[in-house]
Amino acid sequence: MERGHSMEFVGNYKDVEISVIAWKDNKTVLMTSTFSGEKPLGKVMRYDKTKNRVEIIKPHVIEKYNKHMGGVDLLDSTIARHKILMRSKKWYMTIFFICYT
Questions:
Q1: Which DSSP string corresponds to 12-74?
Q2: pLDDT tens digits for 35-83?
Q3: Helix (H, G, I), strand (E, B) or coil at 89
Q4: pLDDT tens-digit readout, 1-48
Q5: What sign does the dihedral 81-82-87-92 (CA atoms) show?
Q6: CA-CA distance, 60 to 71, in Å (whole number)?
């Protein structure tokens, strides 16, 4: 696939429509969604290999993901900053270790 090209496959599981999108940016990106699909297509500016700005097409599901992914990144960075020194299989011990470390 060339950069900006995307393909969508739609299937049903227990009467829920599931959309799988493959989009070629620098690398191939695979997204699965029950919320959004490939259309409407949007545009995004990227740099090519010669450092020129080019406009490529992106699927709607990528746009929605990028808009709402901030909370996931924030959670991941918070978890990385507050590592628990002792691990336990009991969930309530984790709260104890966080409070007293």
A1: EETTEEEEEEEEESSSEEEEEESS--SPSPEEEEEE-TTS-EEEEEE-HHHHHHHHHTHHHHH
A2: 877 788 878 788 878 888 888 888 888 888 877 776 667 777 777 777 6
A3: coil
A4: 777 778 888 888 888 888 888 888 878 888 888 887 778 887 878 887
A5: negative
A6: 19
Placement of tokens 């969930």 in the chain: 91
Euclidean distance between CA atoms 79 and 81, whole angstroms:
6
The model carries a pTM of: 0.59
Looking up tokens 């900006």, which residue turns up? 4
Nearest to 24 by CA among 51, 78, 62: 62
